[in-house]
């Protein structure tokens, strides 16, 4: 049995990758697994090539600054695949690097099986990638039911496996335990702040969030910020603010919050599944934003709203991410009548994400080719 190479590029990919690798280990205990991952994937890898915390960049400008590092990793991955005699590659999201790798593998090692988990959002932008993915990949595992139809007639086998968040998103502890461990008062209202897991997101979103807290003139609340596994809490420099940091309790922090401000991405879908009223926030470099406005062809940029097909959660982008606007939005989310209506709307999102067991379905399909 030839080794498997797995490439994840960010915190969400590390989470998904770990679940798939656990299922694979149960089916193929002797399988040698090499890869790029984070703390969750690390114990499941026989050989680790790099960590996701070194790859968490977003936007055209940001990627340019990291090109030398990405090029070195690119070459290392190709060299190791040859050295180890890899037979199958599993790419997990992160299309900026992974699509280039897939095309390089298809050219240099055409005998490899190339599988991809989490269909790139070609329905939102870069529709030109559809035939590219169709020609390059052997299998594409889709999280949303509308995605396989995009690849009809192409070589790739596109499968809807359901969304792993349906089973993964659950509070780590009960409410009483969370408030005790976080050092918070369970009788007071709680607001969760999620500025993202990438350094570039933090640099743009954390300052306006901190300023919102400093200038807050609404009802009395307490503030919590769940720290992503890829981040060092000390690097956030929140000393002297009333924001309480919590580690390893990201779902509980949102589940027991009365409202949340959430960076656009997978975290918005997670928060929707937890049923907490929230607003979606995002801020890009000016150049990246101009490019995104040209390429993005869908009415909503928040993943939770894309799945819902309507704006369930308010979206604040670019200049709207300022203390005054964030404060007004947060007050609206804390209004009992508005919160009740939003919780009802959020309940409908879960039904559109399929049944539990996505990682197992991917492992079953993948194991048949190892």
TrEMBL record:
Protein's GO biological process: lipid A biosynthetic process
Source superkingdom: Bacteria
Enzyme class: transferase
Pfam family, one: LpxB
Function summary: Condensation of UDP-2,3-diacylglucosamine and 2,3-diacylglucosamine-1-phosphate to form lipid A disaccharide, a precursor of lipid A, a phosphorylated glycolipid that anchors the lipopolysaccharide to the outer membrane of the cell.
Organism ancestry: Bacteria, Pseudomonadati, Acidobacteriota, Holophagae, Holophagales
GO cellular component: membrane
SUPFAM superfamilies found in the cross-reference section: UDP-Glycosyltransferase/glycogen phosphorylase (SSF53756)
Protein name, as recorded: Lipid-A-disaccharide synthase
Organism: Mesoterricola silvestris
NCBIfam families listed in its UniProt record: lpxB
Gene: lpxB
Catalytic activity: a lipid X + a UDP-2-N,3-O-bis[(3R)-3-hydroxyacyl]-alpha-D-glucosamine = a lipid A disaccharide + UDP + H(+)
EC number(s) per entry: 2.4.1.182
Protein keywords: Glycosyltransferase, Lipid A biosynthesis, Lipid biosynthesis, Lipid metabolism, Transferase
GO molecular function terms listed in the Swiss-Prot or TrEMBL record: lipid-A-disaccharide synthase activity; phospholipid binding
């Amino acid at each position: 049995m030839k080794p498997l190479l797995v490439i994840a590029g960010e915190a969400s990919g590390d989470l998904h990758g770990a679940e798939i690798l656990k299922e694979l280990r149960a089916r193929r205990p002797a399988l040698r697994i090499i890869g790029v991952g984070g703390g969750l994937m690390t114990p499941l890898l026989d050989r680790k090539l790099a960590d996701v915390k070194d790859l968490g960049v977003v936007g055209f400008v940001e990627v340019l600054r990291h090109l030398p590092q990405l090029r070195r990793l690119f070459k290392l991955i190709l060299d190791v695949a040859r050295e180890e005699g890899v037979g199958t590659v599993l790419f997990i999201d992160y299309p900026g690097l992974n699509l280039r790798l897939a095309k390089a593998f298809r050219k240099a090692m055409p005998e490899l099986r190339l599988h991809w988990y989490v269909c790139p959002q070609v329905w939102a932008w870069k529709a030109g990638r559809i035939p590219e993915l169709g020609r390059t990949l052997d299998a594409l595992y889709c999280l949303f039911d509308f995605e396989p139809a995009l690849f009809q007639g192409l070589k790739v086998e596109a499968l809807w496996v359901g969304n792993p968040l349906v089973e993964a998103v659950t509070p780590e502890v009960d409410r009483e335990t969370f408030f005790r461990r976080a050092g918070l008062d369970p009788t007071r209202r709680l607001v969760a702040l999620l500025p993202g897991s990438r350094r570039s997101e933090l640099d743009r979103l954390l300052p306006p969030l901190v300023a919102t807290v400093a200038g807050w003139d609404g009802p009395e609340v307490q503030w919590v910020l769940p720290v992503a596994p890829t981040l060092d809490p000390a690097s956030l420099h929140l000393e002297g603010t009333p924001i309480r940091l919590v580690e390893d309790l990201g779902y509980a922090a949102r589940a027991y919050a009365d409202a949340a401000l959430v960076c656009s991405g997978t975290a918005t879908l997670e928060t929707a599944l937890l049923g907490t009223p929230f607003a979606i926030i995002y801020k890009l470099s000016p150049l990246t934003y101009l490019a995104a406005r040209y390429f993005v062809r869908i009415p909503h940029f928040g993943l939770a709203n894309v799945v819902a097909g309507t704006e369930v959660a308010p979206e604040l982008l670019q200049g709207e991410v300022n203390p005054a606007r964030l404060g007004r939005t947060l007050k609206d989310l804390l209004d009992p009548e508005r919160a009740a209506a939003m919780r009802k709307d959020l309940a409908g999102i879960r039904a559109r994400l399929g049944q539990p067991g996505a990682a197992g379905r991917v492992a079953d399909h993948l194991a048949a080719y190892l």
